[in-house]
């Protein structure tokens, strides 16, 4: 039984410069590995927080190939850990559209899964306006993968940012049950202040699993402000580690004994009817 595998949420304040962002990501991955992390996750848009939405089109890569994907594979291989590569733009099926893709590499640097963000964010309060559907093409398939860490099997689900507001996606990932759900994000300051922790803890409690949430957090060069508060949450909804704002690492132990205790004492998952 696994008693304490360290997992890490890496928080960034990404810029419009891909090379600078890759260097910052590599440094955070190295720091997490030095602290004993066996699985680490970068935030959504870790590779580019552009000045315009369509800046993503200029750096979009083919599926499985490109400098961003190669860099992530190298980080995983160098440090011998599972790396959830935040998100990066991968060419879509329609001209002028990209997929916001979360890819995962194993400790050998091999890509094991790709998840394309299903729910595209839209928000307009009269002061801030966002519409991801302008350049993004939605995915349509939930994604989970099996990771073997120190000889122990771990089932992991993936969600991205706005997906957090759709509990049916998380339920779809729980057949069979996940031990961990990873949520790379770039929540706005406005929505994050009121809803980020609330939603993350709700997803952890209702699915009785760990949640690892890696966020953008701070004032970006493009003028945008993101909420940050990357965190690790246990199956009871307790926040084990958090980084408020600025670059940093939220790291904590994932203990399957804790997960098992919660599910035995309160067998809500076994009581599902729908």
TrEMBL record:
Q: Where is the CN hydrolase domain?
A: 5-256
Q: Name one GO molecular function term.
A: hydrolase activity
Q: Which UniProt keywords apply?
A: Hydrolase
Please tell me whether the keyword Cell wall biogenesis/degradation is annotated for this protein: no
Read off the SUPFAM superfamilies from this record: Carbon-nitrogen hydrolase
Q: Which Pfam families match?
A: CN_hydrolase (PF00795)
Q: What is this protein called?
A: Carbon-nitrogen hydrolase family protein
Naturally occurring in which organism (per UniProt): Ideonella azotifigens
């Amino acid at each position: 039984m696994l008693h304490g595998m360290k997992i890490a949420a890496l928080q960034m304040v990404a810029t419009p410069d891909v090379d600078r962002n890759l260097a910052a990501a590599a440094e955070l991955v190295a720091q997490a590995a030095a602290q004993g992390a066996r699985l680490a996750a970068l935030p959504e848009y870790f590779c580019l927080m552009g000045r315009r939405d369509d800046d993503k089109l200029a750096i979009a890569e083919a599926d499985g190939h490109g400098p961003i994907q190669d860099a992530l594979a190298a980080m995983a291989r160098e440090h011998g850990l599972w790396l959830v590569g935040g998100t990066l733009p991968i060419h879509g099926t329609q001209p002028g559209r990209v997929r916001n893709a979360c890819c995962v590499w194993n400790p050998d640097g091999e890509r094991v899964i790709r998840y394309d963000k299903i729910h595209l964010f839209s928000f307009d309060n009269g002061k801030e306006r966002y519409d991801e559907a302008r350049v993004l093409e939605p995915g349509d398939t939930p994604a989970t993968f099996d990771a073997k860490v120190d000889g122990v099997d771990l089932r992991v689900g993936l969600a991205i940012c706005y997906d957090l507001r759709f509990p049916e996606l998380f339920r779809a990932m729980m057949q069979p049950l996940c031990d961990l759900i990873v949520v790379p994000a770039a929540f706005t300051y406005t929505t994050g202040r009121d809803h980020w922790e609330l939603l993350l803890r709700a997803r952890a409690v209702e699915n009785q699993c760990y949640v690892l949430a890696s966020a953008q957090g701070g004032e970006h060069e493009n003028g945008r402000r993101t909420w940050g508060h990357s965190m690790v949450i246990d199956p009871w909804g307790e926040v084990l580690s958090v980084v408020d704002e600025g670059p940093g690492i939220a790291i904590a132990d994932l203990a399957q004994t804790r997960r098992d205790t919660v599910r035995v004492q309160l067998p809500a998952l076994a009581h599902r009817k729908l």
